Amino acid sequence: MKLIIGGAYQGKREHAVKEYGVREEQIVTCAPDAMPDLSAPCLDRFEEFVFYCVTHGLSAREILEREEEKWRDSVIICREIFSGVVPVDVTVRAWREETGRVMTWLASRAERVTRMFCGIPQQLK
Question: What is the CATH number of the domain that holds 78?
């Protein structure tokens, strides 16, 4: 699995297409109100999958552990929401915390971890 993280509009999706040969039609964009197809070659906005789990009382990590064979070879793209000012809203705070924990776990399992900043890839792992 390849993990790409970075702020909004930093070139994460474009990097997945260029670096890993992912085609646009292979990219599943996660939504906050639905469980994504974890077997997609590329999962974008992965933080929205975590939001779905938080708001439905599910553990994102448990789902990922159980379904690992589906996403093991995927490219996962996640917007950095796990730093900065701590949100006052309890749900948003839980979402941010859970996203940080899930990304830490995924990074430990990833073949490559790239952080995108101003369109420039920074290889972290």
Answer: 3.40.50.300
Task: Give CA–CA dist 105/109, Å, rounded.
Answer: 7
What per-residue confidence (pLDDT) applies to 42? 98
Show Cβ contacts of residue 100 under 8 Å, excluding neighbours closer than 6 positions. 82, 83
For the chain, the farthest-separated pair of C-alpha atoms sits apart, in whole angstroms, at: 40
pTM of the model: 0.93
Exposed / middle / buried, residue 39 (Cβ in 10 Å: 0-12, 13-18, 19+): middle
Domain of residue 118, residue span: 2-123
> Which regions in the chain score pLDDT beneath 70?
none
Nearest to residue 17, comparing CAs of 35, 36, 34, 4? 4
